[in-house]
Amino acid sequence: MFNFRNKREDEAADSALADEKKGGFGESVRTIVYAVLIAVVIRTLAFEPFNIPSESMLPTLLVGDYLFVSKYSYGYSQHSLPFSPPLFSGRIMEGQPKRGDIAVFKLPSDNSTDYIKRIVGLPGDKIQVRRGVLRINGKAVERKRIADFVYRNGLGHVYRVPQYRETMPNGTSYATIDLVIDGEHDNTKVYNVPAGYYFAMGDNRDNSLDSRVPMAHGGVGFVPAENLVGRAEVLFFSTDGSARFWEIWRWPSATRFGRLFNSLTD
Q: Among all residues, which ones are annotated catalytic?
């Protein structure tokens, strides 16, 4: 059986095959572009992932924790967008944080570095720490001693640290640790939080560069409302750092399964 096809038919078949390949390639490109656009929209308007690189929020957040931050909780500013382009000022659909929220914000001194702390002071509040006890508008925040926080650092050393349960006037409750009695920032002046600003502190009260340290001294100072990025909502992954990215066989032992999908809101 012979297959008789003239040259024109062969050229038509080759052209159709080429068009099919071009169409397939174009469809793949469009799919990638759509996926990137959807990811950018979700990251800008809904949720953005962050990881914890320091111990300033111990015992609540550990180094190696990964969490989702809701971008809509406090409304949107230029810092809601990737790379913080100065397209507008202020906040759109602004929502005010409540005392006790864990918030991600841009460091006021450079407007680019991400920080994560707990909001303890709202605009108009008077904030002070006396003998390690947080005071809001002249009243001490409830603070109860609880079981020591046991922590293993990156070198494998195990520490037992005094731990306290702190409860805000609005009922938000969380744990803090006190590494040093009467430490450097355990006794402060009264801070008057200006309108349009917030006061943020780390739960690791003796090892946190936060609003207790003014920008003039290399600290955070008051956090402008515009610098808020979002509210920490949930932990979705946590690793103790004992496994490198490519060491897949060690992932199970490095994963802190007990921390997965823990809520960070009260």
A: 56, 117
Question: What is this structure's pTM?
Answer: 0.84
Task: Looking at the structure, tell me whether residues 57 and 132 fall in a common domain.
Answer: yes
Domain of residue 248: give its range: 46-259
Residue 265 lies in a domain: no
Cα–Cα dist 256/151, whole Å = 13
* pLDDT digit string, tens, across residues 53-85: 999 999 999 999 999 999 999 999 999 888 888
Residue 6: its H or E element: none
Domain contains 25: yes
Q: What is the spatial order of strands in the sheet that 126-130 belongs to?
A: 139-140, 133-136, 126-130, 191-192
Q: Answer whether 137's CB lies under 8 Å from 119's CB.
A: no
pLDDT digits (tens, 9 = 90+) for 254-266: 999 999 999 998 7
The answer to whether the CB of 116 falls within 8 A of the CB of 137 is no
Burial of 36 (0-12, 13-18, 19+ CB in 10 A): exposed
The total domain count for the chain is: 2
